[in-house]
From TrEMBL:
Protein name: Phosphatase
Upper taxonomic lineage: Bacteria, Pseudomonadati, Planctomycetota, Planctomycetia, Planctomycetales
Source superkingdom: Bacteria
Coiled-coil residue spans: none
Membrane-traversing stretches: none
UniProt organism field: Gimesia aquarii
Length: 457
């Protein structure tokens, strides 16, 4: 890991994006006063992939893309690219060369990577690093960066040049849990730190808690980490490190408590500023509620102290001076909410809430554009699945549609209709020209470029 001032400056600027007053207030004002305007992307057309020539995505005119890192492709270290492409972020820039880290959400029974990068030899998940040349507009290479973990769903980039990869599970050593049989050698449910270069530490950051992790976001101003939990009854957490940038030295885990609101899965109103405070989690390593096998050991501790319940918290990203996060099945329709938390004044606001499958169904990962506005990845039981942009003015537009339908022999013997594969791992290059994003199944990474300004992101 490199901690040069230039590296930190790059990452801080990439994470911070526009000032809080620019985007945060505009989202809230426009959404509450006028309601969300919606463009379903009816004019999106199949566009050929510049790598394979296949029409894998439907996009607006003026956009183009390149696929890379398909499941089954050989990486530069000789390891075969595993499946389950999920969370992803840019963690380094050297000149025109960007390094990204990509999660692989796999249970598995065997590590896909070398022993030196393997935490648990009987676990199938992990991470791969990828490089992209901004000047040439081309993918360069990829390699294994962490292996032997379980169901690495999302995570988030740090301001000091690394990726924090989250396990979306609380499975322990071999046995069964809630009907799931497994043969692991170690406990799981942790966060791991993966550098842009060099060897990842195989020691989990246990102080960040053992729960069904989804994503996290780091405030570059004070190093506080915000974490989401992907359960139907979930908490929103923050981690106060004992030493900034050295997470192995521990810290204090807390759960959000909204004054007067113990449950925000329904009944939330746009334009309302909910006052927030935090309650301590005394035992962040506790897997279960005492006397139960439920994986809610951390959540139940916070709930006992008045912590607020959300429904399936997923994507989480710092930008515009606030932390944005998705609640996948929140809201009266159960179709998803987008929230923002302001560390500056300790308030929570509802940015958006879906009322129809046609508008937005189950937002998962999200990212903040360097220009302002959000990209929302859709994960629902629908075909085809869509990628959306929510602009500063509260306009929701469909920006891409999964069009992956493969015949045997077109690539790596993959065959079938994959248009129901979820979008994941969206993140922009620091200059805002390229959007990097994954399709979880079959497992493909894309670099998309075009007139983003026209979409308001």
């Amino acid at each position: 890991m490199q901690n040069s001032s230039s590296r930190r400056d790059f990452l801080k600027s990439a994470i911070a994006a526009p000032a809080v007053a620019t985007v945060f207030s505009r989202f809230i004002t426009s959404a509450s006063a006028k309601g969300i305007q919606f463009d379903n992307g009816s004019e999106l057309i199949p566009i050929q992939d510049q790598t394979t020539g296949l029409p894998l995505l439907r996009l607006r005119e003026g956009f183009q893309y390149q696929s890379f890192g398909w499941v089954g492709d050989e990486m530069s270290d000789g390891v075969i690219t595993p499946e389950g492409h999920d969370g992803m972020g840019v963690i380094s820039q050297k000149g025109d060369i960007l390094t990204l880290c990509r999660n692989h959400e796999i249970y598995g029974s065997k590590s896909f990577g070398p022993e030196a990068l393997t935490y648990d030899p009987k676990a199938g998940g992990g991470c791969a690093n990828l490089q992209f040349d901004l000047k040439a507009g081309k993918w360069l290479k990829s390699w294994t960066s962490l292996a032997g973990t379980v169901q690495n769903c999302a995570g988030g980039p740090t301001p000091w040049g690394s990726w924090l990869s989250c396990e979306e599970t609380v499975l322990g050593p071999k046995g069964s849990f809630r009907g799931v049989q497994y043969q692991h050698e170690k406990h799981h449910g942790w966060v791991f730190e993966v550098p842009s270069e060099g060897k990842a530490s195989l020691e989990p950051l246990v102080a960040l808690g053992r729960f069904v992790h989804e994503a996290l976001a780091v405030d570059p101003h004070d190093g506080i980490i915000y974490e989401t939990e992907d359960r139907d009854t979930a908490g929103f957490y923050r981690f106060l490190p004992n030493e900034r940038e050295v997470l192995s030295k521990g810290g204090n885990l807390q759960m959000l408590k909204v004054k007067g609101k113990d449950d925000l899965r329904t009944g939330a109103k746009r334009g309302v500023r909910y006052e927030a405070e935090w309650v301590d989690i005394e035992d962040p390593l506790r897997r279960d509620t005492p006397g139960k096998e439920d994986g809610l050991g951390v959540y139940s501790q916070g709930k006992e102290k008045g912590g607020t319940t959300f429904g399936r918290l997923e994507g989480c990203w710092f930008g515009d001076g606030v932390v944005y996060f998705n609640c996948t099945n929140g809201g009266e329709a159960g179709l998803g909410q987008v929230w923002s938390f302001s560390p500056r004044d300790q308030t929570l606001q509802l940015v958006f809430q879906s009322t129809s499958h046609d508008i937005l169904d189950s937002p998962d990962n999200l990212t903040v554009s360097p220009r302002g506005g959000l990209i929302l990845c859709e994960d629902a039981d629908l075909k085809p699945l869509r990628l959306h942009a929510l602009s500063r003015k509260g306009i929701l537009k469909t920006v891409a549609i999964n069009n992956i339908q493969l015949k045997k022999g077109q690539h790596n013997q993959l065959e079938g209709d994959f248009t129901g594969g979820e979008w994941a791992g969206a993140c922009f290059s620091p200059d805002g020209k390229w959007l990097f994003v994954n399709i979880h199944k079959p497992g493909i990474t894309f670099a998309i470029t075009g007139p983003w300004d026209e979409l308001g992101v």
